[in-house]
Amino acid sequence: QVQLVESGGGSVQAGGSLRLSCAASGYTYSSYCMGWFRQAPGKEREGVASIDSDGSTSYADSVKGRFTISQDNAKNTLYLQMNSLKPEDTAMYYCAADCVYGSASLFFYEYSYWGQGTQVTVSS
Known about the structure:
Strand 4 and strand 5 (46-51) form a beta hairpin. Strands 2, 4, 5, 6, 9, 10 and 11 form a seven-stranded mixed β-sheet that branches. Strands 1-3-8-7 form a four-stranded antiparallel β-sheet, with no helix packed on it. It is mostly beta strands. It has strands spanning 3-7, 10-13, 18-25, 34-39, 46-51, 57-59, 67-72, 77-82, 91-99, 111-114, 118-123.
């Protein structure tokens, strides 16, 4: 059974940094593409960053240059380093795995597995 467990969320002031982690189990981690998504109250879930098994990445325009997705295959863990955080980054952040086409994707409907989420709150 595939399990994804996020951690690292919290409350920070604008300009601060956080690093999210997603511990994966139940499948061959390195063969899957992975992604980070977020959802703010009253808004649709949006793709933030994605990485595939070849290491290719994709980022939402709103986070380019500020967020970095990475993975440690030995630890079966996905990361999202978030710098220069803004109040508009406030959301529940979710880890996702196994995008249907195998390439890095920011479309939530292409993913099969989801974590429970971790809250990120950025104050001005």
